[in-house]
User: Fold this.
Amino acid sequence: MESASLEKPSDAGQGSSGQVRRWLLELQLSDKEEKTWRKVSEKVLERYRGEVKRDDAFQRTRDTFNILWPNTETLTSSLYNSTPVPDVRRRFRDADPTGKIVAEILERSLSFALDVYDFDALMQAVVLDAVLPGRGLARVRYRPSFGPEPMQDVSGPVLNPQGEPVYPVVYEEVSCEHVQWDAFRRGPGKCWADVPWVAFRHSMTREELVESFGPVGNEVKLSEPSDDDVKREEDPEVRGIWKTAEVWEIWDKTRREVLFLAKSYKAKPLKVERDPLGLKQFFPIPAPLYSIRQTDSLVPVPEFMQYETLADELDRVTARINKIIRGLKLRGIYDSTVSEFRKLFEADDNELIPAENVVSLMEKGGLEKSIWMLDIGKPAQVLVQLYQYREVLKNAIYEITGISDILRGATVASESATAQNLKSQWGTLRLQHRQKEVARFCRDLIRLKAELIAEKFQPQTLMLITGLKFPSRSEQQALQMQVKTFEAMQQPVPPEMRLALSQPVWEDIERVLRDDALRSFSIDIETDSTIAAQLSQDQRNVTELLTATGQFMQSMSGPLQAGILPVEVVKELLLSILRRFKFGNAVEDALEKLKAPVPEIPKEIQAQIQQAQQQVQQAQQQNEKDRATVGQLMRKLDQERDDLERVRRKHLDEFSNERESLLGERATLAEQLRNREAAIHERERNVELEEALAKLDVRQSRHEIKTAEELEAIRDRAESGSDGNGGIPA
Assistant:
């Protein structure tokens, strides 16, 4: 075989084409491993439907006893008959308010998630696949709804690592889908923990291909329905008019990635996603629901194969019974000379036929001697034996399947109630492990839903679904400041504000929700019983518990009231009785709140207590009136204080305005004073300058006078010298 030479995935080829070739080889090996089982399952389903293929058409079988259909209906009803109720609680009953809130959020979310679609129809299909083909499957899906506009920040649209715009999530939901038994493949392994990959088959039209994978969807070659589809549905109208492509969705746990590939397009995978759901176990499905347990193989075994030989024998016996019944007819020969026979056979009730020849009829010995009937005694005896043998075969089949007569509603009137209870108890003994397996499958499926809700849902979605609102750390800090303000003003703090402060903040809740380890440590997710086959036994247990509890409490009431026994001892004794009936933690939690009874009080003391209570009540009423009066006074004082405050603010505003006006005038006066001082200084400087100029003018005048005098003196001397000396002096 081609794949036998491969030692590692890269041996299938390099690049994207080699990756596709590797996975096609994996699918081929998986097909080969379960090929025989799928063929057998097809025949089992045909037998369940009571059909057989003749001349390329399905026809109803005749002369058969279809024991598979009633057995399947009985088993499926016994294995699953009611919607599971999620039960999320703290793993340990410690004082853990955050764990309690997380458990309540998940329980409400799961309850809503189970109500938005038909979970019962899903589980019925899974159980039917487990009973008939031998393996039932269901998967979880996370579907977010995005807003029309991309998210924005200061730099523009928010982009993901691939460069695509990120749209805000406006709503989210988690649902489950039934996986068809023949549309599933798995990797090699002898137990589910060893399975390295699982795959789901899809038939997609061209439009679906383009919508899911983009432009590469136009390159995928479409084909007619597969041979299996054609074999099941020959009518083209049933198959549909659109060509489709076979697309495989492969979940590779080793690389934690999901690949989509088409057999008709081998160039590359249509799409590759890196761990899209982020589940702890990676696979979107729980461990499959098997009808027959095995430890050395994961190939299912149809349960019908365990009694197919007996069913074939039952069909043969039924065919013989039908043939004998068709031969058992009232037939005989009569004397043709007696003409009254024809009229006799055609006569109605209470009608008498006149005889034409009575003497001849009497000579022949009457009517009895003139009629010879065919003997059917021996065939009837054979028929009785066949009916008895068929009952033996049916009982043998019921022994193999574990369906007791009490489950089928068949019983004997002479049987006592104890005998019927024993039948019910032992008749369901072999079904108990299968009922537990169905309950396990429901629990695992709900745990996957819870994991997706915890890790994927946005806070606003959880608040919308659960109706629970919790403050953030910043909001709680703001509330703490408000509380301090109330306390500083000696005013009562509103109760809702104190309640909000006592609740965990959303950051702590989200931290537990998002972390697998913290969530596993804090809470446990289970379901209630999905089986009703033990209803009668549960009713007897309840009756016995109530009887035992009533007798116990009646015997303990005296010592409790007398104070001989403390309530803790009585509580432990009652819990020890309750644990024998295994009613769960809910009843034990209720009994933990049990308190000691109030001792009986004499009538005289009761009258005194009643009188004291009346006095206290009257005092409380008077206090209420006083409190109301004080409240009115306080409101009046508050009003006066508010009025005084308004007057004070008014005067303060007027003083402020007046002060601003005075400051403005002061500034104006200061400016005028500065201007005046500058003018005076300027005038003083001008006076000094004028005085200096005057002094200068005086000095200049004096100088000019002196000069003139000197010149005059010189002139005089010159004149005198010219007259006396006869010339100008040197």
In short: The chain is about 55% helix and 10% strand. The CA atoms of residues 362 and 717 lie 229 Å apart. The longest helix spans residues 603-724. The chain has a mean pLDDT of 78.
